[in-house]
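Here is one chain, start to finish.
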Amino acid sequence: MLLWINSLLLVIITVYISLKIVLSIEKGKYIDSEIMKSLVAFKAKKDRKTGDRRLTFIEKLSLKYIERSNIKEFIPFFKLEYLIVVSVIIFGISFSFIYRVLYFVPSAILIASLFSFSPFLILDILGRYNSARIRRELASFISILNRWCAVKEDLFYAFEKSVDSGIDEPLKMFITDMVVQVKRGIPREEALEMLRLKVNNSQFSNFIINVKMSMKNRGDIRKLLTVMEEQFYRIEEEFNRRNISTFRDRIFTYAIMVSFTFIGYGFIKINPDVESFYLGTVSGKILLTAFCFIYAVGFFTTISINSYKH
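Its structure:
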């Protein structure tokens, strides 16, 4: 009973502190704007020396786990603060159960931390799925833009019309947000940059960079779209021919790493001597904590990998 009370107090205190930290950092840094409906806006800042765009740590988190996952299509009110609260609650619940098994605080904290990161992991997977899906649809999307540019040689007119021309989510929401931003006064180059960051795909980034260069130098946008349409059809054919899917590779890797937690617990419980050593002796508990720490480092290192080489 005392353990449950302590766990509940831990959750409440951690949630309160987390919200205080997030809100203090967020204050004045987010554009909590009506421009992006059901979207958490982020500001891109320019470094005075290089002119490169810089995002704050909180903005990077919001971009990676809220924007790219397109979670607001399913939960319109969802924000980074709620994600942190959910993670903290999972940590508190996981810690109370794991401590009952291990009876060693450091090991319980490490393993509970891994479980608490599961909402971030799910949103990261969803974001990568969206990126892969947009890559597969990129050639057909450019084809739609090209057809609308034939009606009126204005790329943003084509973007606006493409929303009602059969493109699927999440690209439909991303393009809609970008069009609304431009209509409300955000510079076109900045809106395109936000779109590029949200999609987070090398092929799409290549498309945006070419479009921005064409706009800057007043190039032939129709010729550019025609060439890029053919190029991306060939790239997608090559992806299909080689059966390349970094998204599937990543899911497979995550599944293996998550399964190790349960396999390790099974090995400990299956042998009474092993269980007695790891759960009943100080040296065994310290060794188990060291294993948990190494596993946690490997897990978070794997999550931080942005691309695989084939």
